[in-house]
Write a structure and sequence with these properties.
It is a single chain. This protein is an alpha/beta fold. It folds into two domains: about 230 residues, TIM Barrel; about 130 residues, Lyase, Ornithine Decarboxylase, Chain A, domain 1, CATH 2.40.37.10. The chain is built from twelve helices and 19 strands. The longest helix is centred in the middle third of the chain and has 20 residues. It starts with 8 loop residues before the first helix and ends in an 8-residue tail after the last helix. The chain binds pyridoxal-5'-phosphate.
Length: about 425
């Protein structure tokens, strides 16, 4: 699918007069549209709820938009819980706490905020009991092991993943939790990341629905929700086809009607913890070309670096680039688009065909709305960028300022700046 920026060159020029590059820009309209489509696609399930994975974009202004669209949040750390509380999610049903290797103070806060605790391991039952008590509603994370494939495509390798419980552990955990007084149960599993396939959720749903029926029949437990977690992906590359969320919703519905309804479990709610799908396409990293260099290859140096977007350096991930104002010019140059870190993997694009880039050009790096700003770091003394919201009226509003050297030095002892 062709990659078109959600912002015009004129809008960006206006925004950059007030807020210098680099910055992450988010599209409020697009975020709302994606959230509405998701809820519509699952409207057949009365209790459907999306718990946005905060780790993807831990920014209060974004969380508030999602809250207005009816979403809850999925947290996995102390500060994510604190941020979610401040954003008004601590109402007893809007926080999922899907953590692992969890420190005790995180369980204590999660329980205090009325979060649904999603236990990653059977040993955490005792850990929870000894520290803050077992809540009446709880979720357990399942890991089926082995290899997860869709048809002939190997999607991921759950057997190598550190998360979740084996099937015998899950049955044992439910038995013990029931004895401890748990009244409402859920099951959760996350088997593959960034799937660009309408099959992933329906296949996962069928596995989980069958498991729910087995658990209910074996242990007479009250299962009220199935959490399909994250994993619905986006087409980072223009030659990939995007997922169709309505086809996905329909596929899950078919599994639901085939497996849960006949088992008299038609009241079960479907939960999701999508991060990437909700936000990735609705973020751009906006940078400016500041240098060009001609050695053995052609380089364009930009004013951002891997500290602002780690995915290309870390995973070799493709992020599409648009040179603003040159959308219709031929891509007759081949560039490495690079940042300033003293790390040779600090490259946003390698051997990328692009129109001729001149110093001063604005570049949009696509699909940075999830795991973009969030994975930022300070290596080489790089400072994290600002975050700007492109509001529905087309104007930009700063929702997080850029870091300053004072922020960078702030945690040092005895170093007065
Ligand atoms: C990362 C994560 C998610 C979100 O995953 P996406 O692929 O971004 O949708 C959801 N749940 C848990 C437990 C996670 O760790």
């Amino acid at each position: 699918m062709e990659k078109i920026p959600f912002v015009t060159k004129e809008q960006l020029e206006e925004i950059t007069m007030q807020y210098p590059t680099p910055f992450h820009l988010y599209d409020e309209k697009g975020i709302r549209r994606t959230a509405r489509d998701l809820y519509e696609a699952f409207s057949w399930n009365e209790g459907f709820n999306e718990y946005f994975a905060v780790k993807a974009t831990p920014t209060p202004a974004i969380l508030k938009i999602l809250k207005e669209e009816g979403c809850g949040v999925d947290c996995s750390s102390l500060t994510e819980l604190m941020m979610s509380e401040r954003c008004g999610f601590a109402d007893g049903s809007s926080i999922m706490f899907s953590s692992n290797e969890t420190p005790v103070e995180e369980y204590i806060l999660a329980k205090k905020l009325g979060a649904i605790i999603n236990l990653d391991d059977i040993t955490h039952i005792d850990f929870l009991k000894e520290t803050c008590g077992i809540p009446e509603r709880i979720c357990c994370r399942y890991n089926p092991g082995g290899i997860f494939s869709l048809g002939t495509d190997i999607m991921d390798n759950p057997g190598d993943a550190k998360y979740g419980m084996t099937k015998p552990q899950l049955f044992e955990a439910f038995k013990r939790l029931k004895a401890e007084g748990v009244k409402e149960f859920g099951i959760h599993s996350f088997l593959a990341s960034n799937t660009v396939s309408n099959e992933y959720y329906p296949v996962l749903a069928a596995i989980m629905f069958s498991l729910a029926v087995e658990l209910k029949e074996a242990l007479d437990v009250n299962i009220t929700f199935v959490n399909l977690s994250g994993g619905i992906g986006i087409p980072y590359s223009p030659d990939q086809e995007p997922n169709d969320i309505f086809a996905i919703g329909q596929g899950v519905r078919e599994a639901f009607e085939e497996i849960l309804v006949p088992a008299e479990m038609g009241h079960v709610s479907i939960f999701a913890e999508l991060g990437r799908y909700m936000l990735a396409p609705h973020g751009h990293l906006v940078v400016r070309a500041i240098h060009e260099k001609h050695i053995y290859k052609e380089y364009i140096g930009v004013d951002a670096c891997a500290a602002h977007l780690m995915r290309p350096a870390m995973y070799g991930a493709y992020h599409h680039i648009t040179v603003m104002g040159k959308e219709n010019e031929p891509c007759d140059h081949v560039y490495d688009v690079v940042g300033s870190l003293c790390e040779n993997n600090d490259k946003f694009a390698i051997d990328r065909k692009l129109p001729k880039i001149d110093k001063g050009d604005l570049l949009v790096i696509h699909d940075t709305g999830a795991h973009g700003y969030a994975m930022g770091y300070n290596y080489n003394g790089a400072l994290r960028s600002a975050e700007i919201l492109l509001q529905e009226d087309g104007t930009g509003r700063m929702i997080r300022r850029a870091e300053t050297p004072e922020d960078y030095f702030a945690t040092l002892e005895g170093f007065d700046f």
